[in-house]
Specification:
By secondary structure, the protein is an alpha/beta fold. Helix content is about 40%, strand content about 15%. The protein has helices spanning about 15-35, 35-45, 50-55, 75-85, 100-115, 150-160, 195-200, 220-230, 240-250, 255-275, 280-285, and strands at about 65-70, 90-95, 120, 135-140, 160-170, 180, 185, 235-240, 290-299. The strands form 2 sheets. The protein has a 7-stranded mixed sheet with strand order 3-2-1-4-5-9-8, with helices on both faces. Strands 6-7 form a two-stranded antiparallel sheet. The chain is globular. The two termini are about 30 Å apart.
Length: about 300
């Protein structure tokens, strides 16, 4: 089956799911980002973004009919869209027992509303995936690794459950870059948590949320893959450099509409100066491209 166009009315998103997203995650992040919960929720529940996510994956592998695990499904919009559009054999984990009970419940509700099996969404953390070794063709996550307790353990588990020859693709904020996506503010490279907290104080923002974040960067990714290679050999295909260069050379769009609107003037200014994409190449040289698209193939 050819993939459906994901901008069609592909998913039924119940109003109760929208309300949960607004009153739970939206209400939490609104004071951090200075963006209204309704605007944030519109971004999170916009399933047309699943087309771009699939396009990035399909630079390395086909998605249709594959067995796919999504780590940290949130409200399960992406997973449901991929099941509908690509007929993947899709599963997801969302750790209700670790304070994500409302998103887990909303995700199962969304699955039911779309005649999908809610048991495919499992209450489990990324650090302890309840699946046998070599179970999946693709393991995917987006904006999850920075929120887990132990990102190395999550990557280890992803490598364990993916089949030899299978793909792991994780989208992660780069904390050597120029933008903090939870607070929606520009930033200098955040080498250490106290540096980022000091910067946020200078911007008159409450920095306490930073204590929950893992400040991942490209050096961490490469070092951790090497560390795990003896137990789970894998080739690090990309950290998203070419994707960043391509996006900066074209009219640059961020996945989140709120991010796009917040950075629109800065982006236009950069691109007016970016002859020959020299700014993009400098960012890549400094490992400051945003975000990281970490892609591994298990060997």
């Amino acid at each position: 089956m050819g993939a459906q166009i994901l901008t069609e009315p592909l998913l039924n998103i119940p109003e109760s799911v929208r309300v949960t997203a607004r009153d739970d995650t939206g209400a939490f992040f609104a004071p951090l980002s200075s963006i209204a919960p309704e605007v944030l929720v519109a971004d999170w529940l916009d399933y047309s973004k699943s087309h771009d996510r699939a396009r990035r994956l399909e630079r390395y592998t086909t998605l249709a009919n594959k067995k796919v695990l999504e780590i940290g499904v949130g409200y399960a919009v992406n997973l449901a869209a991929w099941i509908k559009a690509f007929e993947i054999d899709g599963y997801g984990v969302e750790p209700a027992s670790q304070g994500f009970d409302r998103s887990y419940a909303a995700a199962t509700e969304l699955f039911k509303a779309n005649n999908l099996d809610p048991s495919r969404i499992i209450d489990a953390p990324g650090e302890a995936l309840p699946f046998p070794d070599a179970s999946f063709d693709i393991v995917y996550s987006a904006n999850v690794l920075e929120h887990v307790n132990d990102p190395e353990a999550v990557l280890r588990e992803a490598l364990r459950v993916v089949k030899p020859g299978g793909l792991i693709h994780m989208e992660i904020p780069n904390y050597l870059s120029y933008f903090e996506g939870h607070y929606m503010v520009p930033m200098p490279p955040a080498l250490f948590r106290p540096m980022l907290k000091l910067w946020l104080r200078l911007l008159d923002r409450d920095p306490s949320f930073v204590d929950t974040l893992q400040l991942i960067n490209p050096f961490w990714c490469a070092r951790t893959v090497r560390k795990l290679k003896s137990a789970y050999p894998a080739d690090l295909i990309s950290l998203g450099e070419s994707e960043f260069l391509h996006r900066l050379a074209e009219p640059l769009r961020f996945e989140a509409g709120a991010t796009q609107s917040r950075l629109a003037a800065t982006i236009r200014g950069l691109q007016s100066l970016n002859l020959g994409n020299w700014i993009g190449r400098l960012f890549v040289l400094l490992r400051a491209h945003y975000p990281i698209y970490m892609t591994l193939r298990r060997t």
